[in-house]
């Protein structure tokens, strides 16, 4: 894991603790501490999307609404234009 963090942060000293905590020490002396839960691991599945809890309800509602508008238009319930 330390090799991957070093690749992403060149010129940075990377130390990984027992709990998976990565400590990055930059050339200017500043330090970043990254918890193991925020690091990308090699075990991540590449064929799955992240589970964000979002649903497609709004997409379903817009499809239903557009279908209803189309049906109403076919039956002539839409706005009629005057012909002169």
UniProtKB/TrEMBL annotation:
The keyword Cytoplasm belongs to this UniProt entry's keyword annotation: no
Official protein name in the record: LPXTG cell wall anchor domain-containing protein
Keyword terms: Cell wall, Membrane, Peptidoglycan-anchor, Secreted, Signal, Transmembrane, Transmembrane helix
Domain Gram-positive cocci surface proteins LPxTG, chain residue ranges per copy: 49-84
Keyword Membrane: yes
InterPro entries given in the database record: aRib, LPXTG_anchor
Transmembrane portions of the chain: 61-78
């Amino acid at each position: 894991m330390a090799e991957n963090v070093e690749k992403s942060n060149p010129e940075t000293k990377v130390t990984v603790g027992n709990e998976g905590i990565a400590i990055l020490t930059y050339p200017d002396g500043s330090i970043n501490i990254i918890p193991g839960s925020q690091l990308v691991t090699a075990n991540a599945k590449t064929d799955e999307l992240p589970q964000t809890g979002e649903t497609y309800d709004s997409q379903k509602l817009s499809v239903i609404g557009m279908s209803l508008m189309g049906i109403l238009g076919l039956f002539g319930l839409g706005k009629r234009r005057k012909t002169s």
